[in-house]
């Protein structure tokens, strides 16, 4: 077999995280010689999904490395085995993902997955109900209204407020054409904007802010950042079917997309080597061409025209960090998934928003907390259990905040029947862009991939051949899988 | 084909020679098919082969109602199982290719009774199930046709002939099949129409069909019970679904179910009053979420609710035992609510219209003439109406005249 150093590679991609995997997919028909390595022994990088055993190994690695990036400060708790309640199942019964991002229907990612034909290897599931936690009232979880009909039947909103809220909704789905209303306030806080311009009460400000999935409290969310996100949320509903506006790939979220994308890369001739990273690299000139000579961590030396994904070190200041908990709960939390919409598919994910300062007194909560509840339909846990993905901005007491939120969730559903069986805490620092932390897939990632693809494809020809992520079916490929609907 | 919210685009693209030739070929094919069917029917070949030919043609043109009628005749006179003394209108064609087709049920050797024109007896009818043979093939044919229809209906959900034919098939089922089997078919229809209404919740064909299906399922002939509660719940769901507040069909159906609903609940006067209150609350909240250009579905439902108060002779279905004082009290309260609603919705003509109508209605109910304030208010409101809806100036002139009298 040829050794890696025999080939002059066109591109060496380091890391099989989501962005790099999408690049491999984009390049899979280009005929270029791609060497794709990952220092981990698994695919997915910072977006990987793990069995319980694999979590233990990942944990060990993080805990053993003081300068670990982007993950650090991880710890694990498991419930004592008790009689009567079913406990944790075996390791492979779980697929806990570091990337539970929801993908909005309007995201370009979905159309790219379709046009590149890999969508058939993915099964997408609906993100159904969105809930907001209201510590003040008895039934502490309220449905987040998604549109006119939800607002109309929401008894917690009085009629005048309904009208104001509708005025805002009408405005926001058309915000691009109504710049005179918001551009003067582009950098102001969302809360103030909603209050002054639309007379929305603090409670309704929380409702609207929740739709942005922002880590900041509503008075600190910039209007120009918030409006496109709210518009995306509202216009995504119903696009693929009634009652939902976002999807999540089964078997581990974005991790699954990375797998599928790398597979496409391999089918396209890319060579994959796990457990290998870049140790050093230097520029050399060979036959008048500038190349990089790279020493891999397995001792091999390779030459490549381009390197993608080498860790350039973080020169950025003000890197955001989030605290996260992945928890397993001993209940299917069915009440969270019940849909009132005729014809809607069974949802696999529910989103819970805890606005800042909504948790019971005793826990200082300056920032919102988000909990994505994944039922066993996601394939991530056995039936009758759920996986909870909780996130909030990192602060001194963010771990306690997350734990309080989980506890509040369990209290307000199912009469306190659900028990925590497993709780993995960790912190994640943002990588090059905020997109890496975003709870909803951020199309910026796709833009970055497209830019990289354009640069690479322009080598040799100076012109662009083919379109980004537009592929024909390979011969014989489309016979295997069933007609690729998104599995709803 | 028209759909809600989808603009129709005229097809004015230039055609290439190749496209023109292809179109001519398709036209020829279509015409040939048409002629072939006519010829065979003239020869009274009421066979499955001809059925298949009509299938081909109808897939191309489901609006060709003559062919649907041909199909009906094929089924009734040629293919549906007959009672074993078949003095039937069977065709003489010996090669009715029933045995080759999958439609003839394999376990059911009564199919062989049809190929011969006399009485059949390859398998004597089992006396315990005298209708088995009849159910078997007829049921298969009906089921087959229902399945045949479905993809065409998905493609052309507003073609009258499809809905009519489907209904005809089910009525044939009622007549020729056992009631429990027929009931099963109607049950499946309920599911089907549910799916069609998810696809387009405002397709009135769907709503009309649903009404028919439910009434069949409720009928004593099919051992049915009232479904008014679940149907009412269904309208609630549809109103709260996507674009539900402007779904006229859903509101309309709701209004039609209410009288029977309250009767079946044996609703007391108190319950009825509460029900009316709840419905008013429902519709008012819906109206508060509306803005220019205002939708009329909600206002029609509001009008329906008001009739139990203002137009109670023959229409007092929700609160038949309200005293005149009760009615006046409710109308007065609604007038206050409407005035309140105006604040922030001064561009909504429906509010002004309602205010005038119900002020006059209140006067009628209290058997008095409008007082000065009321006259002035109506004049102001009428002026607004003229501004907001200048196209109907004739109507506002008439209204003005009736206000003066």
UniProtKB/TrEMBL annotation, chain A:
Pfam families linked: GDI
One Gene Ontology term of the molecular function aspect: GDP-dissociation inhibitor activity
GO cellular component, one term: Rab-protein geranylgeranyltransferase complex
Matches recorded under InterPro entries: FAD/NAD-bd_sf, GDP_dissociation_inhibitor, Mrs6
GO biological process, one term: small GTPase-mediated signal transduction
Gene3D superfamilies cross-referenced by the UniProt entry: FAD/NAD(P)-binding domain, Guanine Nucleotide Dissociation Inhibitor, domain 1, Guanine Nucleotide Dissociation Inhibitor, domain 2
Origin superkingdom: Eukaryota
Coiled coil: none
Family note: Belongs to the Rab GDI family.
Protein name (record): Rab proteins geranylgeranyltransferase
Organism of this sequence: Hyaloscypha hepaticicola
From TrEMBL, chain B:
GO CC terms, sorted: Rab-protein geranylgeranyltransferase complex
Species in which this protein is naturally found: Hyaloscypha hepaticicola
Compositionally biased intervals (Polar residues): 84-100, 124-134
MF terms in GO: Rab geranylgeranyltransferase activity
UniProt protein name: Geranylgeranyl transferase type-2 subunit alpha
Name of the top EC class for this enzyme: transferase
Sorted UniProt keywords: Prenyltransferase, Repeat, Transferase
UniProt-listed GO biological process terms: prenylation
Functional note: Catalyzes the transfer of a geranyl-geranyl moiety from geranyl-geranyl pyrophosphate to cysteines occuring in specific C-terminal amino acid sequences.
Family to which this protein belongs: Belongs to the protein prenyltransferase subunit alpha family.
């Amino acid at each position: 077999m040829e050794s890696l150093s025999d080939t002059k590679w066109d591109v060496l991609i380091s890391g099989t995280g989501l962005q790099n995997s999408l690049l491999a997919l984009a390049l899979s028909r280009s005929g270029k010689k791609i060497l794709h390595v990952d220092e981990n022994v698994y695919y997915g990088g910072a977006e990987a999904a793990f069995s319980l055993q694999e979590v233990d190994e990942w944990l060990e690695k993080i805990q053993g490395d003081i300068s670990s990036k982007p993950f650090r400060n991880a710890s694990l708790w498991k419930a004592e085995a008790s009689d009567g309640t079913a406990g944790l199942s075996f390791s492979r019964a779980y697929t806990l993902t570091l990337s539970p991002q929801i993908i909005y229907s309007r995201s370009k990612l979905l159309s790219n997955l379709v046009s590149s034909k890999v969508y058939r290897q993915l099964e997408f599931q609906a993100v159904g109900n969105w809930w907001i936690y209201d510590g003040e009232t008895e039934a502490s979880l309220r449905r987040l209204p998604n549109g006119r009909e939800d607002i109309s039947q929401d008894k917690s909103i009085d009629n005048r407020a309904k009208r104001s809220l509708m005025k805002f909704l009408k405005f926001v789905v058309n915000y691009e054409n109504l710049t005179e209303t918001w551009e003067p306030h582009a950098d102001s806080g969302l809360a103030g904007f909603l209050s002054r311009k639309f007379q929305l009460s603090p409670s309704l400000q929380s409702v609207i802010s929740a739709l942005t999935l922002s880590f900041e409290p509503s008075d600190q969310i910039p209007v120009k950042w918030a409006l496109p996100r709210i518009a995306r949320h509202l216009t995504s509903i119903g696009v693929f079917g009634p009652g939902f506006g976002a999807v999540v790939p089964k078997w581990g979220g974005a991790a699954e997309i990375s797998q599928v994308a790398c597979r496409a890369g391999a089918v396209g001739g890319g060579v994959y080597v796990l457990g290998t990273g870049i140790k050093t690299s230097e520029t050399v000139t060979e036959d008048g061409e500038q190349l990089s000579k790279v020493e891999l961590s397995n001792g091999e030396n390779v030459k490549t025209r381009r390197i993608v994904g080498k860790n350039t070190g973080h020169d950025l200041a003000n890197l955001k960090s989030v605290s996260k908990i992945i928890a397993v709960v001993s209940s299917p939390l069915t009440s969270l998934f019940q849909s009132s919409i005729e014809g809607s598919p069974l949802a696999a994910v529910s989103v819970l928003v805890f606005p800042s300062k909504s948790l019971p007194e005793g826990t200082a909560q300056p920032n919102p907390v988000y909990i994505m509840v994944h039922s066993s339909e996601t394939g991530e846990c056995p039936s009758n259990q759920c996986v909870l993905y909780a996130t909030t901005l990192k602060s001194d007491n963010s771990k306690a905040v997350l734990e309080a939120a989980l506890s509040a969730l369990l209290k307000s559903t199912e009469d306190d029947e659900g028990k925590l069986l497993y709780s993995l805490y960790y912190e994640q620092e943002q990588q090059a862009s905020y997109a890496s932390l975003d709870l909803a897939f951020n199309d910026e990632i796709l833009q970055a991939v497209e830019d990289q693809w354009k640069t690479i494809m322009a080598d040799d020809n100076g012109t662009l051949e083919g379109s980004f992520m537009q592929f024909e079916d390979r011969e014989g490929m489309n016979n295997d899988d069933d007609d690729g609907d998104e599995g709803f | 084909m028209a759909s809600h919210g989808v603009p129709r685009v005229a097809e004015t693209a230039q055609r290439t020679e190749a496209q023109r030739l292809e179109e001519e070929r398709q036209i020829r094919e279509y015409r040939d098919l048409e002629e072939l069917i006519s010829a065979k029917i003239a020869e009274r070949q009421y066979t499955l082969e001809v059925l298949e030919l009509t299938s081909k043609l109808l897939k191309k043109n489901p609006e060709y109602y003559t062919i649907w009628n041909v199909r009906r005749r094929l089924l009734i006179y040629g293919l549906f199982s007959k009672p074993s003394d078949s003095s039937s209108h069977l065709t003489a064609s010996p090669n009715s290719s029933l045995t080759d087709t999958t439609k003839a049920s394999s376990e059911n050797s009564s199919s062989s009774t049809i190929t011969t024109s006399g009485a059949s007896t390859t398998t004597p009818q089992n006396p315990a199930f005298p209708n088995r043979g009849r159910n078997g093939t007829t049921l298969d044919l009906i089921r087959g046709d229902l399945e045949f229809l479905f993809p065409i209906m998905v493609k052309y959900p507003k073609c009258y002939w499809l809905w009519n034919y489907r209904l005809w098939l089910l009525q044939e089922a009622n007549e020729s099949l056992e009631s429990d089997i027929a009931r099963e078919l109607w049950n499946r229809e309920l599911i089907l129409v549910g799916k069609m209404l998810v696809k387009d919740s405002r397709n009135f064909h769907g709503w009309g069909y649903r009404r028919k299906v439910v009434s069949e399922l409720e009928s004593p002939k099919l051992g049915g019970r009232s479904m008014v509660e679940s149907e009412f719940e269904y309208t609630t769901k549809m109103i709260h679904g996507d674009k539900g507040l402007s779904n006229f069909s859903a509101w309309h159906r709701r209004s039609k179910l209410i009288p029977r609903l309250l009767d079946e609940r044996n609703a007391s006067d108190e319950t009825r009053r509460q029900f009316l209150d709840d419905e008013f609350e429902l519709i008012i909240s819906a109206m508060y979420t509306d803005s220019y250009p205002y939708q009329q579905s909600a206002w029609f439902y509001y009008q329906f609710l008001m009739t139990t108060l203002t137009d109670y002779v023959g229409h007092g279905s929700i609160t038949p035992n309200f005293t005149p004082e009760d009615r006046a009290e409710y109308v007065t309260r609604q007038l206050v609510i409407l005035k309140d609603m105006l604040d922030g919705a001064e561009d909504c003509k429906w509010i002004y219209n309602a205010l005038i109508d119900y002020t006059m209605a209140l006067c009628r109910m209290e058997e008095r003439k409008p007082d000065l304030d009321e006259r002035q208010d109506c004049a102001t409101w009428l002026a607004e109406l003229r501004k907001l809806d200048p196209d109907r100036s004739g109507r506002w002139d008439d209204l003005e005249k009736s206000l003066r009298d």
